[in-house]
Each structure stands twice: as structure tokens, then as C-alpha cells.
Amino acid sequence: MNERIQEKLSILADAAKYDVSCSSSGGKRKNENKGLGNAEGMGICHSYTEDGRCVSLLKILLTNYCIFDCAYCVSRRSNDVKRAAFTVDEVVDLTMNFYRRNYIEGLFLSSGIFKDSDYTMERLVRIVKKLRTEHKFNGYIHVKTIPGASPELIAEAGLYADRLSVNIELPSELSLQNLAPEKNYKEILTPMKQIHQGIVQNKEEKALFKKVPAFAAAGQSTQLIVGASDENDHQILQLSDSLYKGYGLKRVYYSGYVPVTDDARLPQLTRPPVIREHRLYQSDWLIRFYGFQADEILDPQHPHLDLEIDPKLAWALRNRHVFPVDVQTADYEMILRVPGVGARSAKRIVAARRFAPLTLDHLHKFGVVLKRAKFFLTCRGQALDSREYDEQSLRRQILFGSGAVRSALVTQQLDLFAQAS
Amino acid sequence: MHDYTYDGSFDGLLTVLLEMYERKTPPNSIQPADAAQGGLFTATVPIATSEEKAARVWQGLLKYMDKEARTRLYHVFLSERADREIIICRYVQLAVEAKGRVDISENYTNDSVRLVADIDKQMFREKHRMEAFVRFEKTQDELFHATIEPDFDVLPLIAPHFTKRYADQRWLIFDRRRGYGLYYDLHRTDIVQFEEKAPQRSTDMSATVLDEREPLFRLLWQTYFDHANIPERRNMKLHRRHIPLRYWRYLSEKQPRETRFQPIKNKTLTKDSSQLQ
């Protein structure tokens, strides 16, 4: 029995690991019933796998039997893999016992589609309902909604889950048709819209009435695969931007394509596109936290993210006319746009300059990365590096000049390129 | 200038601060009595801890700073830095000089202010890590216990988190380095001291006292940990940055496996991907 459960867990964790979402933050579920768990406030990463990704939730599929045949998916119908399925009680028992030992923040539950969408979704709902009602479990729960599941089941899932998500899978409808013929954007966007409306409506009701059951309080997210189809970064960022704006998503996750099946429709890669994925996340952060518009980062003339330098530096190099900015007088928003200045150092700059004129030494101690920032800042009108550089030599100076440290990720991947050629 | 000594408690340090202002004599140093080294030209002044005076100072600090800044000073104390007393003292002096008219807590050009902010940040990180890295083991009498060795004295800071979270199970978190622990008995959480030496490491708790299903869940957790990894994306540098080696000792997923990891064979290897193996 124990060996069987171990085997099931290895199969169903292995099949779920390509779903990258592992956030456990933003929940508002308090432990008010002397039950188990608490999901208010910030998320916690309890461990990290050897690929450097956070382990926050018990991320599993209920089953990897699937009637669909999506080319990029390990669990596709035509793939010859071991199949398994958990029972409702097995998932509940694992979640409770992992949580009690402080292994996890909660459960991330997804599933292959067996029989039909509603049949599968109904079982997911049964599990989360049981955890919440019978076991007084207040930990975090993220449920992946099954494409094509009925609105009633999605609504019910939202009552018990902290986060719901529907994967958009690929950056364009055309690619989706090509690689996942049983899926379409309409079946993905309809539940996404339903969840969005549910969350908005829930917030409005909360403002009016005291006791309203929460609906997916930690919001919804989605994920798309990067590098399995040939959309460029500009198209991807435009899509993310429209999802953030149109559907109020908390997160769009980018999953660098890992070759898991042989299929003529898919590119042959020697390594997942990890740098590109990283640059996309950086751009995503610029949009969500740094006040950038998507079309400032990339436009049809510049459709690809620069793999060698981060998107903020790339933007600054294209927009030399707005620099340098003076640390003593510039707005917070502008200081935040300076390469090498993060949110923490920008806040420190605007707070501290009320007390004294800031010097280079101050900036260094605040955590500003001077090897990038010095070309874009002045202190009391004084340039920190007074030489004139054109865009290319500035780029070289930052990449290879004194104090330049190349990200291990970049070096590693460029090495691989070199070996391949 | 005096060399003040005190009993090493936070109340003791607060008492020193009061005495220092009453005597109008700034410190050359403030040190716990057992670790004190007297100066050559300064008088050593031992200060007796007074709870009443400490309470007055704790309350009085709010005239010069907000609650968040005051909490940061407590965190500096828990950091156990050798110079923690003088850092706290300098910050208080700075705040008192500003007479509460200016909020100095954001004057990052000042070394003391920045130092307090940075230590606070370190403390927060360590507290957050302990909230993540505690691994409970269940015993036969239904106690969930864990051993940790944090860099700083964070048990007081993590107590509310665990009390709220594990309200329906008895648990014990033992700080081996500092020889004390937190114990929750289903009603309240208390600090407990240990007379005898605690087990060397969590794995030494002999198997007989553990709950019969404990080895199973440990095995399942290790299985889960191994299978959540994507070998094609292996990045040990990043891995170790997130979980520095010094924490591995008490993490069950970092203990040796009983059986070797068996990857799930779920794809036919192509020529390209076989090169990666």
C-alpha cells in the first residue's frame, strides 16, 4: 500500500511539475476555527528543488490519464507514460500530513481530463471541499480549472480555493490550434472572465455586507509556454498586458519549453530557453512594479528581448535623451527607471535626500548597482562618469568593463551555444 | 564616559539607557557583565536591571519614534551582534536629539540608521527562513517536534506564526544552539528550557518514539521533492543561494535516501536530449 502511494506520488508530482505557479501569497484565510493552517499574508517557500525553483505547495495532478493530445504536454494521450490516479482521500491525507509537518503552504491541484471535463472538475471540487469543511484546513489551495468545466463547478471551486487559474498555454490562438487541437481560446477565456467577475463581485459584496464567503481571494493566474511556438517576445508581452488589464490577473507565468515529447510540430531544443524566460519575467516585473508600459519595453521595431542585458537597461540605452537624472531632484518614478536602482534603493534615495545631499558613497551603501547606474545618474548636477559614450560603447562598458559580473545563467547558456556550433 | 555592564537581558539594556540619561554620562561601551572588558581610563558601572524602569523606557521611546522603529531596536537586540547595545544606544541618542520633531528612521545617510535598517532586514530574513525550514516529526504521543539552529535568536519572532498556524496540534520547536524552545499545548505557547542535553540531531530521535506513519511521510516528502525537480533546468548555484548549506542538516528532504532516485521514464529520448544526460 505504501509503495503504491509512493509510486502514485512520484508519477503525479512528476507530471505536475511543468506547471510553474507556486505562489502561496495573497490569501486572506485566517485560522479562526481552531483548525489547521493559516493562509494570510505573504507566501512561504518551504524548500527549493535543484533547478532552483520554489517548493511552496504540494503540486500534483489528481490523475495523468488524459483524453486530450496536446503536443507539448507530457501527459498527452498518445504519450507512452505510466498512468496513475489518486483517490480523494489520498490527496486529503497527503495534504494534511505534509502541512502538519510544515513541509508545505498548501495544495496545488490540477488534473488530466478523464471521462469529461465536468467529471474531472467535480472530483477536484470534492477534494477541496472535504479539506475545508471536514478537516478545517485553512492552508492555501490553488485549483487549476479544467477546460470546458461548467460555470457552476468553477463557482463552487472558488468558494474553497484561494486561487483559481486557467492556463492560456500558448501565446497565440493559432499556435494553440496547431499544438493543442482540442483546446481553443474561447474555452480558456470564458472561465477566466467568469473568475474575474466572481472576484470583482465578491469584493463589492464584501464592502456592503459583513459576512460574505470569500471567492478566490488570492486572485487568478495563468501560464503560457515560451519557445514551443514561434511568437516573438513583443507578442507575448502584449498578450500578458491585455490579460493583466482585461482579466485582472495576479500573475502570468512563463514556462520555458522543456522538450518532453517527440513531435514534428515542436522545435528541437538542446536546453530550455531559460534566459529568455528570465528576461520575460524581468519585463513582467517592469510592467507590474516599475510603472513601465508594455510597448515601452518592446515594440514592433524591437520585437525581441535582448538576452545579454536586462530589459530596463535596454530601455535606458534606447532612451538616452531622458538621462541623466539627478538623485537629489528627480521624481521617484524616474529614479525607479534608472538601471541598477531597484525599488528598495529608490525608496531609500527619496527618503534620505530630505536629510542631506546624497553622494556616490551613499548610493553605494543604499545598494545601488553603480556599474550600471553611474552612467545614468548625477549627484547635485555632477555626472558620476563624465565621459561621453555612444550606445554601443556604453553597452560594452557595462557588459565587460571593470566590475562587470556576468550572470552565471547567461554565461552557462552562451557556453552551450558555443559548444553547439 | 562610562563602561556600563548589565545582565544581558533586554530589560537590562533598557535600564542602562535610562541610567545613562539620569547620570548624564554617555557610554564608552555597554556590555553584558559576563563578557565585559573594562577600559583603561573609564569607570566600569554595573547597572542592576529594573523591570519598572525598563517599562518606562520602552513606553518613553514612543515620544521619539514610532512603534515600527522601536520594534527594529528589539530586533537588533535579538541579532546577538557583539556591538548590538551600542548600535541601539546610538540610535536612541539620535532620535532623542531630534526631539521627535524629525522622524530619523528614514535618514539612511546616517550610518546608525542604515545599520539598524539592515540588521532588521537580516532578522526578517532569518525569521522567514525559520518559518519555512522547520520540519516537524510526529511522536507516538502526538507531539510535533522540530530542531533548528538559526543564525539569530528568532524563536520569539516566529512564535505567533506557528501558534496561529498549528492551532490543533501540540508542537515543540527547539533551538539547539541557544538551548531553549517553544512549546504549544493546544492553548498557549510558552518558552521552555531544557536541563538535559537534547538529541544531537532530529534524526537521532530513536525510531521507537516516533509515530508509526512518520517514516512514511518523510519518505513521501523526499519522493515529492525529487520528482518536483526538472533535471533539464538544474541550477545548483541558485539552489544553494535559496537554501544555504548550513540549513541542510535539519531539512528532511536533504537527508540521504534509502533507495536511489528513479526518474519517471516519460519520454523517448531523442538524440539531442540524450546528450544532456
Q: N-to-C terminal Cα separation of chain A, in Å?
A: 50 Å
Biggest interface reads: A-B, 69 and 63 residues
Oligomeric state of shown chains: heterodimer
Please identify the structural class of chain A as seen in this structure. alpha/beta
- N- and C-termini, Cα separation of chain B: 68 Å
Can you put this structure into words, describing what you see?
The complex is a heterodimer of chains A (421) and B (277). Chain A is of the alpha/beta class. Helix content of chain A is 42%, strand content 11%. Chain A has a 6-stranded parallel beta sheet with strand order 5-6-7-8-9-10. A 3-stranded mixed beta sheet of chain A has the order 11-12-13, with no helix packed on it. A two-stranded antiparallel sheet of chain A has the order 1-2. The longest helix of chain A is centred in the middle third of the chain and has 24 residues, at 185-208. Mean pLDDT of chain B is 89; it is low at 269-277. The termini of chain B are far apart. Chain B has 2 domains: 2-126, no CATH class; 134-254, no CATH class. In chain B, the strands form 2 sheets. A 5-stranded mixed beta sheet of chain B has the order 4-5-6-7-8, covered by helices on one side. Chain B has a 3-stranded parallel beta sheet with strand order 2-1-3, covered by helices on one side. Chain B is 39% helix and 14% strand. Chains A and B meet through helix 1, strand 3, strand 4, helix 2 and helix 12 of A and helix 5, strand 4, helix 7 and helix 8 of B. Chain B: This is TIGR03915 family putative DNA repair protein. Chain B: It comes from Hymenobacter qilianensis. Chain B: InterPro entries: DNA_repair_put, DUF4130.
